[in-house]
């Protein structure tokens, strides 16, 4: 099996190479990069580093771009867009490369990789920072930490800022503070004709609205954001864990999940929490922004969760901002300041571990802190996933919830399938972004599993996800997170990701990119799409 997969893959790669030697494109990119290291920053299908360079976080064999160009200056991006169009390819922006379907590395495209466009210039008053759109969250947090500031972003240190803000951006402070998209003051955007505009509440406000939550790779390429900075107060952290012992007592996983969905979203807005539903165990974790261990202990004691089975309970106070970023990775407790290992945040532009035997692309891999250790390489996966928003107006029935929890229990061991379900019910800090589910979402139900290189196993796992879709979609409706795109969604994807904003976004798209230069299979088109009348 392994051997035949390998032969098939080798054949595939060579076909891709032979079919598309993009000479004109390459010459044009070399010119655009003439100021420094033109040949070190271009990867073609024939290069040993091509497989590594075309893969983002996901191990995938669906998308084979024509060429990958690693920009390092904002000023290179406009000329790169023109190179792509002149040679007949689509320009595709890539920041962190986490897109679940690899839409930042499409076939027949020039990938404009922005991971090295990662400058962080903090203003004198430390209230804002001009930041390269390709920076990874860990690098951003590390750089801002040196100024005693932070950004209301997401959790994973290797996610890119460009993709996060395009999707909306949620994290463990969101119920009180809102989404990453709310913390953008302005953005510099390269349009389809290669020109640059500033998008802000007063300059191209329609574009400014769309690029925050209206989907990535659609309206233009954001090269720089001006971010509004925050500081987090001392906070408290919760970890409740029911291990496999409690699986034996019957409905513990279901009882906890049910109690959580009623309790988590109803708590004070400073408390953001999630339940992790595994095959044989379950956890509840949470972050109480500005709260003490005493305050958190009170809401946990009153939750009813402690009466289910006999969980391990950790309630710890005095957490700092670094703790908030490590949450869920290295620790579920607040470590004292001098013991926090923030190196996990100190990521380099190419932060991934090697895939199989493929040579890795590297170029000026400089971390944001020279005194902290560098983050260890981030493991790529064959991730399979789904996303559903449970709406305030349509809570899950007990029967459906029970069936979903059972379904997780039935997944094969190797799938490592689990549900990561976040309490939403965000408070009203909305700055008016295109993220569609802000006011209606009560909880986000994410499902994650490992894919397999064995086609039969892969098929079985895809069927498992199809069953989850069949169970949940009719129960919760179309709403899904645009940062978790899913090729097998059973409803119109545009409605799922953009809700009632679709027509407004189509109008903005047709104004700024009528020729559909920036696009991908789930992007807003310049004309009303089939099935939707605007
Ligand atoms: C392990 C993991 C953890 C995650 N955790 C969180 C989380 O805590 N919170 C959360 O909200 N989301 C989370 N996500 C989802 C993540 O935010 C989205 O997948 C996001 O789109 C990834 O951004 P990226 O820049 O890394 O990806 P990319 O693949 O580089 O880009 C994603 C999309 O945005 C476009 N794009 C990228 N940069 C630009 C730009 N500068 N201008 C215009 N378009 C651009 C791309 O073309 C592509 O369509 C997580 C995903 C993974 C895999
Ligand atoms: C991309 O191109 C390869 C061949 O180069 C092909 O096998 C693959 O199916 C294509 N992907 C998509 C999504 O069409
Ligand atoms: C939403 O959260 C607020 C606290 O911020 C709470 O008062 C309200 O009851 C919650 N709504 C729901 C539907 O849980
Ligand atoms: C929560 O309950 C535990 C066990 O009864 C008790 O020891 C603890 O003091 C309580 N915490 C608070 C903050 O009330
Ligand atoms: C499972 O949880 C119980 C109760 O918290 C604990 O006593 C036991 O040691 C745990 N077992 C394992 C294997 O972690
Ligand atoms: C745990 O629960 C799953 C279903 O949720 C079941 O298949 C499995 O046998 C249980 N394990 C034990 C040890 O009871």
- Calculate Rg over CA atoms: 23 Å
Query: Given the helix and strand composition, which structural class is it?
Result: alpha+beta
Question: Residue-averaged pLDDT, rounded?
Answer: 93
Tally the helices: 15
Query: Can you identify the CATH class of the largest domain?
Result: Alpha Beta
The percent range for strand residues is 15-25%
Number of strands: 16
What is the CATH third-level topology name of the largest domain?
Answer: Uridine Diphospho-n-acetylenolpyruvylglucosamine Reductase, domain 3
Secondary structure topology:
Layout: H1 2-19, H2 23-32, E1 42-43, H3 50-54, E2 67-70, H4 77-87, E3 90-94, E4 109-113, E5 120-122, E6 128-132, H5 137-145, H6 161-167, H7 174-177, E7 184-190, E8 196-199, H8 205-210, E9 221-228, E10 235-242, H9 252-263, E11 271-277, E12 282-288, H10 293-301, E13 312-319, H11 321-326, E14 383-391, H12 398-410, E15 418-423, E16 441-450, H13 455-476, H14 493-498, H15 502-512
Parallel strand pairs: 2-4, 3-4
Antiparallel strand pairs: 1-2, 5-6, 6-9, 7-8, 7-9, 10-12, 10-13, 11-12, 11-15, 14-16, 15-16
Helix pairs in contact: 2-4, 9-12, 12-13
The structure holds flavin-adenine dinucleotide (FAD) and 2-acetamido-2-deoxy-beta-D-glucopyranose (5 copies).
Domain FAD-binding PCMH-type: 61-232
Protein name: FAD-binding PCMH-type domain-containing protein
Family: Belongs to the oxygen-dependent FAD-linked oxidoreductase family.
Structural description of this entry:
The chain contains 15 helices and 16 strands. With 534 residues, the protein is α+β, with helices and mostly antiparallel strands. The chain folds into four domains: 5-113, Uridine Diphospho-n-acetylenolpyruvylglucosamine Reductase, domain 2, CATH 3.30.43.10; 120-231 and 502-512, 2-Layer Sandwich (Uridine Diphospho-n-acetylenolpyruvylglucosamine Reductase, domain 3); 235-341, Alpha-Beta Plaits, CATH 3.30.70; 383-501, GMP Synthetase, Chain A, domain 3 (2-Layer Sandwich), CATH 3.30.300. The strands form three sheets. The chain has a seven-stranded antiparallel β-sheet with strand order 13-10-12-11-15-16-14. Strands 5-6-9-7-8 form a five-stranded antiparallel β-sheet. The chain has a four-stranded mixed β-sheet with strand order 1-2-4-3. Strand 7 (184-190) and strand 8 (196-199) form a beta hairpin. Helix 2 packs antiparallel against helix 4 (77-87), helix 9 (252-263) crosses helix 12 and helix 12 packs antiparallel against helix 13. It is globular, with a radius of gyration of 23 Å. The chain starts with a helix and ends in a 22-residue tail after the last helix. The model is unreliable at 1-19 (pLDDT under 50). Flavin-adenine dinucleotide (FAD) binds at residues 56-57, 92-100, 103-104, 114, 133, 154-156, 159-160, 162-164, 166-167, 169-171, 216-217, 221-222, 483, 520. It comes from Coniosporium apollinis. This is FAD-binding PCMH-type domain-containing protein.
